[in-house]
Amino acid sequence: MRAGGQLHEFDRRGLLTGVVAGVAVAGVAGLAGRGLAGRLEVDTERAKIALPRPAKPLRPIPAGADLRLKDLSPFVTPNRDFYRIDTALVLPQVDPKTWKLKIHGMVDRPIELTYDQLLRRPLMEADVTLTCVSNDVGGPYIGNARWLGASLADILREAGIRSGADMLLSTSTDGWTSGTPVDVAMDGRDALLAIAMNGEPLPLAHGFPVRQVVPGLYGYVSATKWITEIKVSRYDQEEAYWTERGWAPKGPIKTESRIDLPRGGSTIRAGRTQIAGVAWAQHKGIDAVEVRVDKGPWRQARLAQVPGVDTWRQWVVDDWDATPGDHTIEVRATDATGYTQTPDYAPVIPDGASGWHSILVVVK
Ligand SMILES: Nc1nc2c(c(=O)[nH]1)N[C@H]1C(S)=C(S)[C@@H](COP(=O)(O)O)O[C@H]1N2
Ligand SMILES: [Mo]
Q1: Is residue 6 a part of any domain in this protein?
Q2: In angstroms, what is the span from residue 86 Cα to ligand 1's centroid?
Q3: Which spans of this chain does the record mark as coiled coil (predicted)?
Q4: Shared-domain flag, residues 226 and 104
Q5: Does the pTM exceed 0.90?
Q6: Are 142 and 352 within 8 A, CB to CB?
Q7: CATH number, residue 124
Q8: What percentage of the chain has pLDDT greater than the value 90?
Q9: H helices present in the chain, as ranges
Q10: Which residues contact 17 (CB under 8 A, 6 or more apart)?
Q11: Taking CA atoms, which of 150, 288, 301, 342 is between 20 and 30 Å from 234?
């Protein structure tokens, strides 16, 4: 999300690796720091949390979901490896003891929820793959986790959404906003106010204590971290953070696929070689993945199992006989609606990249 905005990428140690555009650092830090607890204090509170059991536990992830190939993205992304994207120069420190979520706007009964009240609601688990709209074809801004949280739709039903409302404008402690389509949040998918990620309370960098997760939508329109407010409203009355900066108001995730191995640009040995990667079409599901080498015939990849339609899916081609020379490998996925990715490249802005991921390898 570079164009026209300030977006920061963090590497796995949490260091700021790319700051774009001019930001008044002191201003942002001052804003983020105001009224928030210190790091130590929040870490201590987080360590004390005993996660409630889900009301209906999800089945374990099928063993066949992970092909366990070296260099292939694991089916579940460990929290420490999960991509991080946000505008926060200073990580918000939100104390769960004082956290509140306010739901208001076009509702019959405004609601305020504390963290304890949220934990006492029936909690559900969901396997959901998060994707950033600024993830270019072949890019790294995607990760999959098992989330635990309360149903967002149930809470919104208790508030009573008034007719004519079509947008949930959510706000985080640091003032960032996101606009989620009401119909998507309410259509029965596992839209969550999430409190945990892969069996532990949300890491601070991923929204502790509470964040939204809505399968099928890019993060900028769905995945508000450090959430404190949901205003039920209308797209013709409100504009969220990235929409003001030229990104689309609504952001359904595009069907995509990525080659993880062999590594693009690498030199490999001649002989039988596995080509493998991940494909995703959240809330639709992946039905097929095909691979071709040097624009030859498309070969069907073998698909790993998936627990549902909201995650990415690993795939592998086992029988490529790599011959010495330079080779181009391309991938395309077909989702469960029957749509097959086209080679037409679209850049990330305004509504997500598309096109075939293509890599070059040297075989010796
Ligand atoms: N408060 C806040 N929440 C946010 C953002 C942000 O900048 N601030 N970025 C969003 C974007 S663009 C994405 S892709 C996801 C990334 O979630 P992650 O950092 O946990 O992977 O968070 C979303 N939630
Ligand atoms: Mo994003």
Answers
A1: no
A2: 5
A3: none
A4: yes
A5: yes
A6: no
A7: 3.90.420.10
A8: 89
A9: 25-33, 39-48, 115-120, 152-159, 182-186
A10: 9, 10, 11
A11: 150
Q: Which of 31-40, 81-90, 107-116, 131-140 has the lowest mean pLDDT?
A: 31-40
Ligand closest to 178 (CA) is 1
Domain final residue, candidates 225, 245, 265: 245
CATH, residue 280: 2.60.40.650
Residues 226 and 284 in one domain: no
Domain range spanning residue 267?
A: 256-363
Residue pLDDT, tens place only, 132-164: 999 999 999 999 999 999 999 999 999 999 999
Q: Are 224 and 79 members of one domain?
A: yes
Asked if residue 75 and residue 207 are part of one domain, the reply reads: yes
Q: Which residues line ligand 1 (CB under 6 A)?
A: 82-87, 130, 132, 172, 174, 176, 206, 219-220, 223-226
Q: CA geometry: angle at 151 spanning 210 and 239, to 5°?
A: 65
Residue 1: pLDDT band (50, 70, 90) is low
Neighbours of 355 (CB within 10 A): 19
Whether the ω angle into residue 57 lies within 30 degrees of 0, i.e. cis, is no
